[in-house]
Amino acid sequence: MSRWRWSCLEDTGAFAAALVAAGPIPAVVYLHGDLGAGKTTLAREIVRAAGYRGVVKSPTYTLLEVYPTPLGRILHLDLYRLGSDDELEFLGLRDYLDQPALWLIEWPRPGAAVLPPADLECFLCLEPDARHSLTARSASPSGEGLLGALMRALPQEPGGPS
Known about the structure:
The protein is α/β, with parallel strands linked by helices. 25% of the residues lie in helices and 27% in strands.
């Protein structure tokens, strides 16, 4: 497990750029954290770092947003409002399972029976000093590679991700 802390959007963007540079397509990234911890902001920055130039919308109400990027397809899911994993069937997720994509899944627990397993799990937290922290854990051999690349790209340093 590795941990970074940051206090501004630029640092969130730096983390997103490092993740994208690590070559995360295909990969599945679970984003855990309380409301306001920065999950959607991080997902938005990842989509932008992958080269998407359109509006990056939150999937809070639609549950799923799909972004074609120069690096491949990104699927951004927010399952906070999901009543049961049966609701995911209506999104047509099975159609995406066999296609390479970067999956960014906020609140994955309600859809665990249907979702692909995580390669990387990110636990975001808003700390009392108003800084954000992210603890990442690999959940597969591919996730180990991603985490290793992130650790090399974002060493602990004052004022940035640490």
